[in-house]
Design goal:
3-stranded antiparallel sheet; binds protoporphyrin IX containing FE; 19 helices; alpha+beta; 14 strands
Length: about 475
Amino acid sequence: MPDTLPHDLNAGANASPAGGPEARNATDAAKGEPRRLFRADTIAPPETPLPFVRGLLTMVDNPIKVWPKSAYRDRYHKLHWMGRTAHYIRSPEHVKAVLLDHADAFEKSEFQTRLLKPATGEGLLTSEGEHWRFQRRAASPAFRYDALKALVPTFARAASEAVGRMRAEGGGAPIDVMNEMNRTTLDVIVETIMSSGDPGFRHEHVSSAVTDYVQTLGHPDLLDILGAPPWIPRLKGSKGARAAARLKAAAVDSIARRRASDETRSDLLSLLMAARDPETGRGLSETELRDNIVTFIGAGHETTALALTYTLYLIANDPVVQDRLHAEAVEVCGDAPVDADMVERLTFHEQVVKEAMRLYPPVALMDRRAVRDVEDGDLKIEAGDLVLIMIYVMHRHQRIWDQPEMFDPERFSPERSAGRHRFAYIPFGGGQRICIGMKFAYMEAAAILATLVRDLRFSPNPAHRVRPNIRITLRPAGGMPLFVSPR
Ligand code: HEM
């Protein structure tokens, strides 16, 4: 594994005069009173690369356990397995080369497609080429700021219900905030995408289908990692396939109920049903509608729940940050339900969520397959090669971040963000396939977080260690039990 870094990754960014990682917080340093930062828990990387077979088996359990310490210091390595080459990239320049400069040379890998397609079909996340382009153009208006503003009351309502549940539960025992956040963001996605008070919608049913799906099909099999063809049956295949079928059926029901009712609503389903490709005027077919609904439920709910879950863990361990959030929430929102204008003013909330997603990116690993040869600097990729974009590693890379393992929302202040390589921080991916729900997620996370911290205090749980585990998303093993009390 080469450790070759001829140039500074942060060149031109807010590097220190010596050209090292990002500059420290100048204000703190000038005051001469650096604040004690919280060290975010994780899995210690192995000192040296694991032997091949052990590495492979560990990869199935959790890729984070495989990546050695050197991965956080150097910029690139490649491995050959089963006659294929896999490029492991974690430098902003390489990421930019793959996601932006040569985007047309890459597709989603068949590995990812095999994991997701049974549920998301030919929806936005898993389609390619002209079919993807058409859907992206058609769906984009539903994700513009003006359309999203109308959804903020739903975010605030779901968060208030979570406050009510946690208050009611508060008997001194820890509460699994991951469950709570999953429930809250599922309420949001279901409400904003398809139900809007639809009495026929079976909430628990969809929720358990998503969970089953992520835990079964979403959990890569050794056969997937080895690249075995799809017709070889996977151990957990049937339960996952049943969960995918349940999700699709729920989406089809919702579309049918909506068509049968004459109501016009302003949720995403209505927007998608009305969507027309600005270039051709064509709308989404029934199958495309169904696949995109399942895609939005799958892609939009657990990711945001995880961003909030890790945020709550981090602020529980950093009372200074938690109090500052509380003060901002009270100042901006008073006692009123959070609305769209308030969300725009919750700037410290956004910084905190960004820093939580740096340390624990809900999508920690992205992959692509090259469809043609690409050469860019020291990156030489051949058609058919696999590229793994190690978001988790890049977000903790020693050459990019100062004290990478520490929780410091000030990294995302305007001053300290200025000049940072725009591909150094990519929780939502980048280039043309950047997450369509990014603004949705930021608005939702800020509205929910403000509602929670205004009424509740989160305290650490010393008995629980945080062990992030890459499934499709980065889940904390054993959930996130924290102490929660009313303010
Ligand atoms: C914190 C929350 C979220 C995170 C971290 C996240 C992350 C990502 C990432 C990394 C990608 C790119 C995947 C790739 O290029 O391989 C992506 C794509 C996507 N996300 Fe999100 N996402 C979040 C929230 C949402 C929400 C709320 C929605 C919808 C309501 C959504 C819908 C999608 C869709 C449809 C795509 C595919 C876009 C395309 O290929 O054109 N995401 N997301």
